[in-house]
Amino acid sequence: MPDSHLPPVDELLSIAVSALGGSERQGQLTMVRAVQKAIDDDEHLAVQAGTGTGKSLAYLVPSIRHAMGSDSPVVISTATIALQRQLVDRDLPRLAETLAKELPHEPTFAILKGRRNYLCRYKATAGWPEEDEQDQLFDPREVSATGRMVQRIQEWAEETETGDRDELVPGVSEQAWRQFSVSAQECLGAGRCPSGAECFAELARARAGEVDVVVTNHALLAIDAMGDLPVLPEHEVVVVDEAHELVDRVTSVVTAELSEASVMLAVRRVGRLIDQPVADQLMEAGEDLKALLAAAPPGRIDELPQVLGLTLQLIRDTAWRCITAMGPRNADKDDPDKAGQRKAAFTALDEVHDTAVRMLDAYGHASEADRAEVVWLDGATDRRPPSLRVAPLTVSGMLRDKLFGERTVVLTSATLALGGTFEALAAQWGLADGKWQGIDVGSPFDHPRAGILYVAKHLPQPGRDGLPQQYLDEITELIEAAGGRTLGLFSSMRAAKAATEALRDRLDVPLLCQGDDSTMLLVKQFAEDEPTCLFGTLSLWQGVDVPGPSLRLVIIDRVPFPRPDDPLTSARQRHVAARGGNGFMAVAANHAALLLAQGAGRLLRAQNDKGVIAVLDPRLATARYSGFLLNSLPPFWRTTDPAIPRAALKRLTTDPS
Fold first, then answer.
1. Buried b vs exposed e over 417-454: b needs ≥16 C-beta within 10 Å?
2. How would DSSP label each residue in 367-422?
3. Which residues are in the Helicase ATP-binding domain (predicted)?
4. What is the pLDDT of residues 467-494, one digit of tens each?
5. Is pTM, for the whole model, over 0.85?
C-alpha cells in the first residue's frame, strides 16, 4: 500500500496518544511531522527533544507508517539495553495494538543484536577449541564462580527459545559466556554448521527480515554499515535514538587491540593445524611484545620507537606465515569440527595480523594533519596485562560514506544542540556539508520555574589533589538544605569515594556511593528512600531516571572535561588543531557540554519535579568557554548567590508543592 493511502501521520499520532492515555504535546507533534517530512524528502534530520516530549512515539509512528507504505523495514538503533527493552517490551507492543485497525496489518517488530549475544548451539555441544588455557592463573574462587556460571548457562541452553544472553538474570561473566558464543568472523555459516538450521542468531536475523521495525544497537548498526556483508535486513530509513552516543559507540567498534594474550590465543588455535616451528615463531613474537609492553610507559605513542616497529613487523610477518601455512580457508568444509577449528584459528590470526598492519600504517605521515589513527599503550591493571590499542582520529568520514550515504537517517536525543547549535555534533557525524537539518522541539518542562542552575562562583578552581575543603563544606550545606534527596555526579570515582568518606560522618542522612552494590540496586534504594543521597560517576550522569521528591538536588563537582592524558581525546584535539580548527572547543568542550547537559537532565524527570542543579566549578561562570557550556544546558533560572538555592531547597523540603 503506497503512503498516500495510509492515514496522515498527525491522525495516527492522535489515535495513539488517545489510546495510550496521554495528552498531545506540541513538541511531540512538531517532531512527528519533521520525521515524516525527512522520510518523504529523503533528508537527514537531527531532533533535540527534551525529557517528557514523548520522542519514542514521535519517531515510531512515522517509522511504522513508512514501513507499511514501502514494504521496507525501519531500523531503530539505541545505545542502551534499557531503551531497547523499553521499545520492544512496552512501547512497540502497545503502539502496534493501537494502530492495527488503521493500517493494512498489525505492525510487527523484532530485536536484533550482534552474533556474540546469542548462544551458539554448535559450540555448546561440540568440541570447540579452548578459549583460554590460562584458568590456572586465576584466583581459584574466580574459577569456581565461572564454573557455576557455565553450569547455569548449560541449564538455560536446554530451555531458552531465543538464546539471547540478556535473558540470563543475573548476568554471567564474559569469560563464561565466551565458551558458548562465537563472533561473526568465527561462525561457520548456517549452510556448513550442523546446528545451522536451529541457530539462534540466524533465527533472529530471519525474524528481523520479516518485520516492520527492527530494534538494534549502535554497535551493530556500525558493523552493518561498515562491514563487507550486511547484518541488518535491507532498509531505507534509520532512526538513531540516544544519538549523542553514536560517535563513541562507532569508535569502540573500529578500535583494535594487540596484546600478548591475543597473540597467544592465535598461537594456541593454530598450534595443531600447522607445523610447530611456524607457530613457535609467532609465539616468540608474542613473548617479545609482552616484554616490550611490560617495560614501556602507558600513554599515547606519537612516534614509533624502532624496537616497537620491529616487534610489530615481526608479529605481522609471523602471523602471515601462519595464515599461509593453514592453506585454503575452505578446506575441511565437510568436517564441521575441523572447519570450526580452522575458522577460529583464521579469525585469531587475521585479527593479530590486521591490527599490527594498522598500527604500523598509523605512522610515517608527512604532517599531523595527515595522520588518520592514533596508537597508545593501555597500562596493566589488577585484572589485565598491558595492551596496545589503535583507533581512528575521526569517524566522520566513515559515517558520511557508509551510514548517511545509503539511507535516510533521523538522529534524536535530549542533548544534541551543543552551545545552542547542532553544528558540533553534525561535524562529528560527517553531516557538516550534507543535506540535513536540525530542530529543537523543546521540552514540556518550564525550566526557569521548575529548576535553578547555581554556579558556585566564589569557590576556588578545582585542582588535581582531590576535593578542596570548601567544596566539602558547600556540598554539606546544600544537602542539609535539601534534607538529603541528592544525586552527586563526580568527574572521577576517586572524587566520589573521597566525598562519600568525608561526608558520611558530617551528614545525618543515608549516603550511598557507586560501587557499594550494583548500580541498579543503588538507584532503586535511592529512589525509594527520600532522604537518601547517591554519589557516583559516569554511568550516573546518563543513566538515572528518578522522578518525584527523592531527587531535589543534583551536585556536579566540576566541568567534566576529558582527562588531559586521555590518549584518544588528546590526539583528536591535536589533529583538529593541525587542520586549523580549535581542538579544545571541538573535542574537550564538546565532550564537557554533552556530559553537563546529560547530568543536568537528571533533575526534571516528571511534570511536577522541582529542584536545583549545583555546579561547584566556578569556571562555568568565569571561563571564556562558559557561554558555550551554559548554552548547551536547559534554560534553568541561573544564579551564583549561594543563599538562593539553599533557601529554595529548604522551601521544597517543608512544602514540596
1. bbbeebebbbbbbbbeeeebbbbbbbbbbebeebbbbb
2. SGGG--EEEEEEPP-SSS--EEEEEES--HHHIIIIITTTSEEEEEES---BTTBS
3. 14-286
4. 899 999 999 999 999 999 999 999 999 9
5. yes
